[in-house]
Write a structure and sequence with these properties.
Elements: H1 12-63, H2 97-102, E1 111-114, E2 118-119, E3 126-130, E4 146-147, E5 155-159, H3 161-190, E6 223-229, E7 232-239, E8 254-259, H4 261-280, H5 297-300, E9 317-319, E10 324-326
Parallel strand pairs: 2-4
Antiparallel strand pairs: 1-3, 3-5, 6-7, 7-8, 9-10
Length: 347
């Protein structure tokens, strides 16, 4: 009897063996494929959560708070009617952006919990959770405790407003330093502080994109208060801080004080050097009629009208006996010579 296969097809035994082999291979491969699919989905979810975290930070910077649970993550892509909303705050590859902020790569809805109860306690002001590959939120649920130390496949983002505020405060303090320098230079040139920070634009400071340099990290305008005291002005430039409330530089406001004394002194010394040199070069000039004005000594020396006033906006004077031009200093009192320039020289 011939053992050759019938030319018309496989024997039943061969079919059974082939099916068994396919089943064994499929059984071996399926878990690996399933694991790879879940790993890819978990990676996509982590990346999506990172985008949501960045979007929430940007929302917080503009609105001064996180979206409420009622507004949810949809507030990152559609304006819920929040003041100063400048979104959308996330850019996603999905056709419908709402899908990206609503559901993870496993097709499960994200859990968005504001002021969550957590273990350890007090580590988050906000929590976003994906239930992970097993599609079950094992570490906690909305309005219940979240065990952040639990060994689960849940995927979390936890956020603290304090950490964001610290970063924003550092940014504001850096900006206030730049504004202070610009205001000081402005005062040196104008013997006055700017009435509005936009007066600094161009010569003294780059305003940035759409005037962003004059707005703080919470996208609120920096505020200005001017104080007088003994003739020397002080300018307070401040941010209303994380609570977005104007406390005139108090409470959580972030502020810097800018004194008119240093810039006023610099411009005064420069002008006095020129004025004194002009007077020294004309030793026979009669010192009549005082220093300022069209008929004064300054005019007789051929100096421009800018030399009438010192760096604090007060008139220069001349000590006739010593033929020394002087400034009455930041206090504006010529008789109080301790701060006069030169010191001790007065009428």
């Amino acid at each position: 009897m011939s053992m050759l296969r019938d030319a018309k097809g496989f024997t039943l035994m061969e079919v059974i063996v082939a099916v068994a082999i396919v089943a064994l291979v499929a059984g071996a491969i399926a878990p690996v494929v399933y694991k790879q699919i879940n790993s890819a989905r978990a990676k996509a979810t982590v990346e999506e959560l990172a985008l949501l975290e960045a979007g929430l930070i940007a929302f917080y910077e503009d609105a001064g708070r996180f979206p409420t649970e009622g507004e949810g993550l949809a507030a990152l892509v559609t304006d819920p009617g929040v003041d100063n909303w400048l979104g959308p705050y996330v850019s996603v590859s999905r056709t419908n952006p709402l899908d990206a902020v609503r559901a993870d790569a496993f097709g499960q809805d994200y859990i968005y919990d504001v002021s969550p109860e957590t273990t350890p306690a007090g580590v988050a002001d906000l929590l976003i959770s994906s239930p992970g590959a097993n599609l079950s939120s094992d570490a906690g649920r909305l309005n219940h405790n979240w065990d952040l130390d639990a060994d689960t496949d849940d995927i979390f983002v936890i956020m603290s407003s304090a950490a964001i505020d610290r970063d924003m405060e550092r940014e504001v303090r850096d900006e206030l330093g730049l504004i202070s320098s610009a205001c000081s230079r402005y005062y040196e040139d104008n013997a006055a502080f700017p009435q509005d920070l936009t007066d600094l634009e161009g010569i003294y400071m780059d305003a940035g994109f759409e005037g962003a340099a004059f707005r703080d990290a919470w996208s609120r305008k920096y505020l200005v208060l001017e104080y007088g005291g003994g003739g020397a002005l002080t300018l307070r430039v401040y941010s209303s801080g994380p609570d977005l409330q104007d406390d005139s530089g108090g409470d959580d406001d972030l502020s810097i004080l800018i004194s008119s004394v240093p810039p006023g002194r610099r411009s005064t010394l420069n002008e006095l050097e020129i004025a004194q040199a002009a007077l020294n070069n004309d030793p026979e000039l009669p010192l009549l009629g005082g220093w300022p004005g069209p008929s004064g000594i300054r005019s007789s020396l051929g100096l421009a009208g800018v030399f009438d006033l010192d760096g604090w906006g007060n008139s220069y004077g001349v000590n006739v006996s010593s033929r020394v031009v002087f400034s009455c200093g930041p206090d504006g009192d010529a008789g109080s010579t301790s701060d006069n320039i030169p010191v001790g020289v007065g009428p």
